[in-house]
Amino acid sequence: MDSMTRNDNWREAIEQDREQKERYFREHHRSPIPPDLRGEAFPGLEYYEVDPAYRFELELDRYDDAETVTVETTAEGEQTYRRVGQFRFEVEDTEVSLDAFEPTDGSDRLWVPFRDATSGDETYGAGRYIDLEPDEHRTADGTWILDLNRAYNPTCAYNPAYECPLVPPSNWLEIPIEAGERDFPAEVHTH
Question: Is residue 149 part of a domain?
Fold first, then answer.
């Protein structure tokens, strides 16, 4: 498969995922959207254009000792994760790094939350998440695919009844990440 075909397939997969999420949020009885905002009243989800400049194949620089950290939540609660490593990459000539976390439930998926210069303006103020499943986001040589185009809002961005972990300060970026999901309409946050 040539790189152009691979690029088209990758972009198409992201667009399909976005359409499925939109349909689920609009119609499904388990949607995080309050019931009176579903169906015809659903304002829709907004995204940045898919941009290959925000897709990276990276080594995870694993920490020698994975530290267990307590992460505060939007409901003044706490959750624990293991900080297992760090991804280092460059966005528009700026070196950045994001810590990767594993849940303490024994799962081997990685949680990569972040805040950036768009948070609270174009994107959800508390930050966005990326989940990396080993089966889907690891290449044959063991590198991870960190695709910021897949950054999504936590459920509390749509409904304050949900409790979401807050982004640890180590993953607050000073640059804008203009990729992934944009903020849900502000008037809905206070609905």
Answer: yes
